[in-house]
Amino acid sequence: MRHAKWVFRGGVAIVVFAFLHYSLPQNDIVRITDTYEKRIDFGENSWFWAAPDSGNDPTVTNRDVFFIQTIRPNGKPMVYRNEDTGWGWPPYFKFDTANLQTEAADLVSSRENPQWVRITHYGWRNEFFSIYPNAISVRPVEGPDVRIIPWVNIVILALLALALFTIRRMWLQFRERVLDPMLQDIDEAGDAVAARARGLRGRLRAWLERWKSGSRG
What we know:
The chain is an alpha+beta fold. It has a domain at 2-148. It has 3 helices and 5 strands; from the N terminus they run H-E-E-E-H-E-E-H. It has helices at 2-23, 97-106, 151-216, and strands at 26-41, 62-71, 77-82, 116-122, 134-140. A 5-stranded antiparallel beta sheet has the order 3-2-1-4-5. Strand 2 (62-71) and strand 3 form a beta hairpin. The protein is elongated and about 115 Å long.
């Protein structure tokens, strides 16, 4: 039973970590090589795409999506999608897809004369399932070695840890003040019932012994 408990806790921890890793903002230092627009027919990976841009028909099964092609400092490619998040999840309230695409196009540079940028995004990149992270903002930086401190993630995780700590303290106090006395009363009532049952069995056994003795007499 103890192993099952730890397996359950480990599964919950993995789900929570994956959810936070997908939803929280991440920063990449890259060089933009191109921007383009492509018609996407959504299939089994539709969960990893944002809702239709604000003002578009939400019932269509395909639409044009902006993409931003980049190269990382180590030379590996990275492709981002550029979609509105609207009022949905994650709550980035992004409505400036067209503006962001224009900014990204203006920052396109070559290998000989690179312009490094910071792309803030959420989500994952998976070539097999055609999943792309969604770009939230694009900002020029001084170089590929610039250091970025994820203050937003630090604040969110700190608030989440504080909330979990508060909930745990409240649960421990509730268990100590309400559940433990209730369980103790139940145990005491059970002991009393068991004692009465033992007394009843004892009296019944004594009666049977007297009855048997009287029958033999």
